[in-house]
Description:
Blueprint: H1 5-10, H2 14-25, E1 37-40, E2 43-46, H3 50-54, H4 65-76, H5 78-81, H6 86-120, H7 127-169, H8 178-194, H9 196-221, H10 248-260, H11 279-309, H12 311-314, H13 320-329, H14 334-367, H15 385-402, H16 405-433, H17 447-467, H18 469-488, E3 494-495, H19 499-515
Parallel strand pairs: 2-3
Antiparallel strand pairs: 1-2
Amino acid sequence: xxxxxxxxxxxxxxxxxxxxxxxxxxxxxxxxxxxxxxHVQGVDYERVGADYLRxxxxxxxxxxxxxxxxxxxxxxxxxxxxxxxxxxAEGGWGGLLIATVLMATMYTCMVFGLAELATAIPVxxxxxxxxxxxxxxxxxxxxxxxxxxxxxxxxxAIAVFIGGYVEALGLFGLxxxxxxxxxxxxVFVGIHLWGVGExxxxxxxxxxxxxxALVAFVVGMVPRVEFGKLLDIxxxxxxxxxxxxxxxVAGVLAALxxxxxxxxxxxxxxxxxxxxxxxxxxxxxxxxxAMAVLLVFAGLMLVIAPGAxxxxxxxxxxNPLPLAVRTAxxxxxxxxxFVNYVGLAGLVxxxxxxxxxxxxxxxxxxxxxxxxxxxxxxxxxxxPYLALIVPAGIGFALAAATGNxxxxxxxxxxxxxxxxxxxxxxxIVLRVREPQLPRPYRTPGGVVTTGVALVLAAAAVVATFxxxxxxxxxxxxxxxxxxxxxxxxxxxxxxxxxxxEEFAAIARAEAxxxxx
Length: 516
């Protein structure tokens, strides 16, 4: 049988993978057989038995394209309720508008590229798997680490924001603090342990409630919009300052981070590739559908909230949408109360969904041996229970220790932007180096599209240093520790027949056959 797309997709099945390995190395395939080690690309691989992979299986066919699109919206929707408005304080409405357009362009170009990569390499590791094939083990691990930082830290920040909402609403007389954070993690990690299909359906329902709140906000506030209110922040003496750009040209760069909040984490949809019914069909429809919804809501929030209340009124608020309603109507209303209470669902939706994302990335890195292998074991319901629980414990500790949501989310943003650079480089490298790689979906515009995303992602990395050097330094420190672990320990203990590694191995085999 000639290597090609059929062989690639067969390699996602652990039993077939084992049969392929038996055919190539002559071993028995029993769980207790001797494991062979090979040295490739500066790392050491071990071929494990079929039992290893059977203990690390996800539930296949649990998600169609609609659930995947809902997952993509759920990742991000909290950013419509809070966070983006801080960009008004950094760049004014004009600066945030330009920053949002630039970041919307970056994300749109990026998801086109990711849709292609997710159909060509449909594995739970997503960005790590893409970069592993394009950039080698070190590049793959660096990308996976950046994504894991984003997804492990973001829920801690959102837990802090949920605590703030609970306190502001006076729910049960609670104040923001560790008991609220603990309940958040315990409840929603517990639902994920129940099973992926059930978790995705619950997530979809919560997201739908949050979308209803955004629609109600838009319908209720449109009559109150006055475009003069968008530009009510007084210009400073900064270079290039004007009514449109009150903080000058530098304000645009500072606002980039907050333009990201409208879209941050939509790139996580490909993490569900191994649980999708038909990755080749469902992945592009899911991620592109989610992006379309997010673009619409980003535009509406950016115009309607400051247009009805004034940019200056909401620029520093932790709860900008209810404040915008109260300001526009001159007092409390049923709409303000509705958006306030249901806005909590938006935060919960993102918190809940990003837990899913970090567990799948940790699962993939662990299954391949980059991180301790025990973390990728799945239980009876095919959920990676330690990959859910361990980051939850770390996130809870960070939320309880710092109580600083802004710092935590900026750490997550820095990790995200680094991963975007590496994933777009991976798309370009694979297009140039492997033009014959089967691609059920192809990016419109090819490398030009992902090249645009790459340039804008690099600018976003720079912007994180401008906005929060401390967050950037903390993220860099986490990277150093992770890469040291890889260099001195895990690169000598990688798993050859993990799916992400096998895609790379097949690519090498095909290249050798072509050379012969």
